[in-house]
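As a warm-up, study this chain.
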Amino acid sequence: MTLLPDLPQNAVLLDLLREQGVTQEHGDFVYEGWALHTHPDLVGRLADLAPRWPVLATFGVPVLAAKGIAAVVAQGMGTLLVRLPEAPPELLEPAGPCPPLTDPGQGWYTVCPWQSELPSAESKRLLSLLVQQALSYAGSLAEDGSIDRQGRRVQAPGERRGRTTGRRRGKGGSSRQRGGGRGR
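Now compare it with the structure written out below.
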């Protein structure tokens, strides 16, 4: 089972991962019911690069998503796929291509998750920044009715929640009625 939603923005990625996915119930390399397609150290590295974001198990591959849109994928032993509007800085060492995701116009780029040419702290800082940029970009691709990082539906501004508008009013009415609001 995948936690990454089946949205048009995720279609190419989900098709690729679904094709590679192998269900597996038992063993050392089982990831949410699927054979793990990412080295365990790289799963940990991904979690370290974005500590406040849940890592979604998707057909045996860890994925970070914003508003339900995939942003970062960890594959194999040394590949991070990042979704960005343009290529990452040349300072960062790229990883090998991952067709069809890294084909021209797809918006996915690969980087090495370890950046051996940089000091460890600088590598982590730059990669964390890149991951945050990818998450921000992926979130900007979401349409109305998207979901947040916990998988809950994102409510559009002004959308009603049940019978109320989402504003809480105490027994005293609105702040304007009590005379406490800002003047106009």
